[in-house]
């Protein structure tokens, strides 16, 4: 049935005032989380070659940068640590005076209102670069759980507000919840990387975090990009184990997954706009091939439209500036 010329959809598009009145999806600064890399071994901020504008920060300068982020109205940062010493069991991941534990203490002392979320995963801390301990060439699930729980606990004891397990071991959310509760931290939320795919889009991050696996790949624990029913099983499992928020990662090639996760549960949904997604936009923008601001706003709006409540993005400070002007 064709109602034209009676019905004309362009009526509601004729100027920005009307368009903004009927706009369905909004991107706000208080929905953004900014990832930060803190490196024990650096004296000055080191720019990551494949991620223009993103630095590895020395401990001494973390609070200065975080202050800038908080002043932009960004409510939360997600911390990744790069230790000097790596070993087979990732000891620095749960060391009382590890790089992240120290960073958390400084941040909480100086900027208590900024939410500190910590990535809980061993890959930046193991010499083999895998997310758990290895025996006979394979990543051991159950033996890794205890180390991950110790890691999460050490972050929370240092003052972290939220822990975000990204290792993709089975059962980790439950073990983290149990460990935190046992130690009096039943109010600390778990933001679970519930649906994390084995993705080529993490390439630049692995340069940033020095966490590329030294043999093999992560396909035996991260998910197959072809699967979405399995994503819903991961989701269900994490909810049953006590996750407070659930994440889909990466974001842009997985908008359909974000939508399904949104429709299947009532938990807050987080999407991680990952390093490779950032680098591709930056590279095209630096070549003058695209309008960076316009493309970034369109991409992040599409992630929100797909159903994400929050977005972890390296673009957060830029977006905060753009939303102000
Ligand atoms: C740690 C972790 C990774 C990312 C976040 N946490 C890398 C990986 O799983 O290999 C990727 C983030 C990004 O690409 O921006 N396991």
TrEMBL record:
> What pathway, per the record?
Porphyrin-containing compound metabolism; protoporphyrin-IX biosynthesis; coproporphyrinogen-III from 5-aminolevulinate: step 1/4
Top enzyme category: lyase
Matches recorded under Pfam families: ALAD (PF00490)
Which key words are in the record?
Answer: Heme biosynthesis, Lyase, Magnesium, Metal-binding, Porphyrin biosynthesis, Zinc
Give me the residues that bind 5-aminolevulinate 2, please: 275, 314
Q: Which positions are catalytic residues?
A: 196, 249
Which residues are recorded as binding 5-aminolevulinate 1? Answer: 206, 218
Q: Which reaction does it catalyse?
A: 2 5-aminolevulinate = porphobilinogen + 2 H2O + H(+)
Q: Report the InterPro entries cross-referenced here.
A: ALAD, ALAD_AS, Aldolase_TIM
Q: What is its EC number?
A: 4.2.1.24
Q: Which family does it belong to?
A: Belongs to the ALAD family.
Name of this chain's protein: Delta-aminolevulinic acid dehydratase
Q: Which organism does this record belong to?
A: Dictyobacter aurantiacus
């Amino acid at each position: 049935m064709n109602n034209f010329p009676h019905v004309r959809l362009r009526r509601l598009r004729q100027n920005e005032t009307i368009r903004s009145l009927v706009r369905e999806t909004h991107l706000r600064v208080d929905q953004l989380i900014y990832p930060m890399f803190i490196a024990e071994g650096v004296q000055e901020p080191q720019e990551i070659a494949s991620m223009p504008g993103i630095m590895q920060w020395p401990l001494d300068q973390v609070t200065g940068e975080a202050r800038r982020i908080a002043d932009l109205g960004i409510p939360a940062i997600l911390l990744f640590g790069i230790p000097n010493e790596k070993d087979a069991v990732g000891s620095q991941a749960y060391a009382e005076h590890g790089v992240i534990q120290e960073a958390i203490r400084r941040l909480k002392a100086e900027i208590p209102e900024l939410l500190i979320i910590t990535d809980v995963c061993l890959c930046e801390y193991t010499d083999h670069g895998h997310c758990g301990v290895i025996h006979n060439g394979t990543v051991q699930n159950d033996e890794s759980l205890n180390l991950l729980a110790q890691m999460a606990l050490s972050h929370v004891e240092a003052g972290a507000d939220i822990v975000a397990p990204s290792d993709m071991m089975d059962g980790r959310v439950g073990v983290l919840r149990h460990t935190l509760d046992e130690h009096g931290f039943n109010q600390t939320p778990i933001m679970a990387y519930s649906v994390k795919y084995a993705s080529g889009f993490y390439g630049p991050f692995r340069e940033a975090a020095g966490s590329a696996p030294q043999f093999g790949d992560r396909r035996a624990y991260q998910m197959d990009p072809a699967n979405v029913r399995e994503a819903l099983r991961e989701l269900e499992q994490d909810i049953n184990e006590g996750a407070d928020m659930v994440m889909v990662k990466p974001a842009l090639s997985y908008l359909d997954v974000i939508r399904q996760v949104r429709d299947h549960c009532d938990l807050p949904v987080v999407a991680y706009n990952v390093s490779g997604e950032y680098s591709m936009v930056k590279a095209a923008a630096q070549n003058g091939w695209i309008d960076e601001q316009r493309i970034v706003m369109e991409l992040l709006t599409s992630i929100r439209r797909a159903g994400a409540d929050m977005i972890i993005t390296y673009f957060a400070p830029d977006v905060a500036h753009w939303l102000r002007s």
